[in-house]
Design a protein that fits this description.
TIM Barrel; metalloprotease; hydrolase; single chain; six-stranded parallel beta sheet; metal ion binding; alpha/beta; 390 residues
């Protein structure tokens, strides 16, 4: 069935005004000022978007789809994510990652979960590896994983400046990045290295050593959690001004914010005020990952679970509370990750792109409708499609 979205104001993610959008199968067929339905054509679903903003489906490029955690022993392993945990947040594309636990959480499990989520209706890719170096892969090689396995587009999340990391030296990270870079070049993928940044005052030192001592460009890395404390955030500004990508994490707790974590909307606003290009900034949720709390001795004292829904909540707050332009706020979860990760069919409302679309109420910017690959997942704030075990 064809679908026609009419009367909406479209951000593609730049504002292009009132447009109609014709969805043909899982693609965007046409975007035009007015698309009329022929009188004798009955097999078309018309979605009235009057009073709505129409934006690209959101991309969450850091989600623990198999669950994460375990820092408080086996009982604290967080559960696998379910489909509607993702779609109710307007997310239509996710990148799955492993984290602290690369032993009981495996790459084969991650890949199988990604394929399962795709069968349920959304798009899913993964990175190979976890916190540790050497990286545990599927084929035995980072480069081979990226070249030979369609769903693997990069490596990570590799932990740096964290007491849970494998304490690699810069040469270890350089070799890993080289393998990812060549794997990406040979397969047409991004080959990014997703870096988990911890609380250490060393911050980005290892990445700078790689960049200064090798030919690997700064854009090969995607450091995340860059808003976790004031000193890392200050370094993030300088890193981004040098051309690096920076990713801010939206899942948080009141305690983390009280201890100095920078709210995402504030982080984006400050970056822009310091001359950083909006194109170098992304947000991710760390969804289904653990949000562990440690004391001064590094001992586990508590844990909460990240939520994919926090991704758009942070964007909405950035617009309503921090005064961000809608197009800037939307870019950090649509076109920016699509461009950085070379997801060529994602992140835009343009002809021949994937039909991943979200309708927002203009009054309060709440999510009304979510369409993934041309299929209506949420309509009028009601879930239409649930996961297999929901």
């Amino acid at each position: 069935m064809l679908k026609l979205i009419k009367n909406g104001e479209v951000y593609n993610p730049d504002y292009i005004g009132k447009k109609d959008i014709l969805i043909t199968g899982n693609k965007i067929g046409y975007v035009a000022d007015d698309i009329s339905v022929p009188k004798d054509f009955v097999d078309i679903e018309v979605i009235d978007a009057k009073g709505k903003f129409v934006v690209p489906g959101f991309i969450d490029s850091h989600v623990h789809i198999c669950g994460g955690g375990g820092e408080g022993s086996f009982k604290t392993r967080t559960p696998e994510i379910q489909l509607t945990d993702i779609t109710i947040g307007g997310v239509t594309t996710v990148i799955g990652v492993l984290g602290t636990d690369g032993t009981t959480r495996t790459m084969s499990n991650l890949l199988a979960k990604a394929r399962g989520l795709e069968e349920e209706g959304i798009t899913c890719y993964v990175h190979t590896g976890s916190y540790q170096i050497p990286v545990r892969t599927i084929t035995g090689s980072v480069q081979d994983d990226i070249i030979l396995i369609d769903k693997i587009i990069g490596v990570g999340e590799i932990a740096l400046a964290d007491h849970r990391s494998s304490q690699p030296i810069w040469e270890d990270v350089a070799k890993l990045a080289a393998a990812a870079r060549v794997g990406g070049m040979l397969s047409g993928k991004a080959g990014v290295v997703n870096i988990h940044m911890g609380d250490s005052k060393d911050t980005l030192n290892i990445l700078y050593e790689v960049i200064e001592n090798t030919e690997i460009p700064i854009t090969q890395f995607m450091p995340t959690h860059m808003n976790r404390n004031p000193y890392l955030f200050e370094d993030a500004i300088e890193y981004a001004k040098k051309g690096g990508y920076v990713d801010f994490t939206t899942s948080t707790t009141d305690k983390f914010l009280e201890e100095g974590e920078v709210k995402c909307g504030t982080a984006i606003k400050t970056m822009l005020e310091n001359g950083v290009s909006i194109n170098n900034i992304t947000l991710t949720s760390d969804g289904q990952g653990s949000l562990p709390d440690f004391n001064e001795d590094g001992e586990y004292i508590g844990l909460q679970v990240g939520k994919v829904t926090s991704l758009y909540e942070a964007v909405r707050a950035g617009i309503l509370e921090d005064g961000l332009k809608i197009e800037d706020a939307i870019k950090v979860i649509t076109s920016n990750p699509a461009n950085i990760l070379k997801l060529h069919n994602k992140g835009y409302i343009k002809e021949n792109k994937d039909a991943d679309i979200v309708l927002l109420d203009k009054d309060d910017l709440s999510i009304d409708t979510v369409i993934a690959l041309g299929k209506v997942m949420i309509r009028n704030k009601q879930v239409f499609v649930k996961g297999t075990f929901e």
